[in-house]
Amino acid sequence: MNVLGDLISRAGAQFAERVALVGERRTLRFSDVEAESNRLATALARDFGLACGARVAILLPNCPEFVITDFALIKAGLIRVPINPRYTAYEVEFILNHSGAAALVTSAAFGDIVAHLRGRLTSPLHVIVVDDASQSAEVAPAIADAFGWRNVLARGTPDRFAVDVQEGDGYMIAYTSGTTGRPKGALTTVKARFANVMNVYANEMFVAPSDVMLHVASLAHGSGTKVFPFFIKGAVNVLLPRFSPAAFFETVQKHGVTTSWMVPTMVAMITDAPERAQARCSSLRTIIYGGAPMPVPVMRRALGAFGPIFVQIYGLTEAPHPDLVFGKEEHVADGATAGPGSAGATGRAAIGVRIRLVDDAGRDVPAGEVGEILIAGEHVMTGYWNDPVATAETLDDGWCRTGDLARMDTDGFYYIVDRKKEMIISGGYNVYPREVEDVLYRHPAIAECAVIGSPDEVWGECVHALIVRKPGFEMTPEALSAHCARELAGYKKPRRVTLLDALPRTPNGKIDKKALRSQYSRGSDAPRTQSVA
To answer: Are 395 and 280 within one domain?
Structure first.
């Protein structure tokens, strides 16, 4: 039995002639998606010899081939390893090696990354390039066994195909960095994925065949979890490879978009965009937002612009959203909330999810007091791939420790007040200070450094580097930015740099980041701080 694969094939047959996927280059019907995913699944399983449980990485922009690959992996019993297309070659290299990926589906646009991988991988890797054969030549010299997408599909068969899988078999390894800077792969199962889909239906929205879901965030990120729930209900998934407010409004009007998922930064951008004044958005009924805190002023403006169409969700890689939900009825047009005392809340516990707030000793805290959020449910990961120590630190008797601190009021609203971990959330993406610090320390002019998050009106938080230079060395913020760009995705680079004579320390000699966050909470207004593009 393959419950997820069967749902895909069911939709492929039931809605066969309806439009399923709208990409930049082509539009596919449900029957097309079913046939192509069967072809890829049979080619991977039979021609490439990938056995159930093998890992396959996806490094693609938002495009139909991403979805087809995802569905093919489900049918073939293979484990999906999504890679953020903004990652550098070094980040991709680590994920491929750590997951032991047997194949990578990518495009010619990532030819430089594929070239970087040559000789750096610990196991053989099949590379499949989704572009036309002529474009694939850009990648083929980098790895000798690169295959063109069309040739791979030709090796498979379009007939219905699904290998038997158990509910405890792996569905996805999603990588999320820890405070130590070492990425960890959260493994979710087939059972967990099915539970997550049911949670989406129960908490976020009712999905009908008439719905049109617009994906403006990366399918490797939160938006990708929405493709499957919309597809199996017969709705349309529209895939936007590059987000901009102008492209958003144009796509909403052209395709009658009803729903979208975005991070708060995107909500701010479409709210404040000049294109909104002329846009016709009457079809738009739901915008789901999450991935970072939503500034109250931004939500006030968004509600004034679009009305009460917003749903806030909270979740994490280890326990995919929705875990907390703040519904449309709890938003009102002036930016306040309908629930008493719920202004600034993240939401209430989602249906199908259990939430606890505990102190450092693991004891439940009463309403009004701050504790760490613990989450339990069938959607929670089984553990970190090949990392039993980190798994034991995060999972405890069925409960997942989030590292987020919150309080709950008497009406059941949760308010996230801080993060136990030092993670920075910039534009909806997680940035871990240690990872950035490791790169900064490779610069010859840096003696010491610390990375914190600073408030930012556009990104929610931005990466702020506080640096002590070595004697006799000069360094400009622009040069530092260029140094970081070679090894870090753009959203991880410091956007603010402060040069200091010394960093404050705790009594035990550690750099005192709490003191730094307190001192530099004003961001770019702080002394000796420069903003960097």
So the answer is: yes
Q: Record the pTM.
A: 0.84
Q: Are strands 429-431 and 446-456 parallel, antiparallel or unpaired?
A: unpaired
Contacts (Cβ under 8 Å, ≥6 apart) of 326? 311, 312, 313, 337, 345, 346, 347, 348, 413
List the CATH number of the domain containing 512: 3.30.300.30
Q: Check residue 140 and give its pLDDT.
A: 46
Is the alpha carbon torsion for 511, 515, 521, 524 positive or negative?
Answer: negative
Residue type, 94: F
312 plus 253 within the same structural domain: yes
> Is residue 452 assigned to a domain?
yes
Domain-embedded: residue 410:
yes
Token pair of 251 as six digits: 């796509």
Please give the structure tokens belonging to residue 422.
């030092």
What CATH number corresponds to the domain at position 223? 3.40.50.12780
271-274 contacts: CB < 8 A, separation 24 or more?
271/298, 271/301, 271/302, 271/305, 271/306, 272/301, 273/245, 273/246, 273/249
Cβ pair 309, 327 in contact under 8 A: no
* Tokens read off for 354: 């259990």
Tokens 């065949």 — which residue?
209
DSSP state for residue 489 in the 8-state scheme: -
pLDDT digits (tens, 9 = 90+) for 466-506: 999 988 888 888 888 889 998 899 999 999 999 999 999 76
Residues 188-231 have pLDDT tens digits of 999 999 999 999 999 988 899 999 999 999 999 889 999 999 99
Same domain, 237 and 310: yes
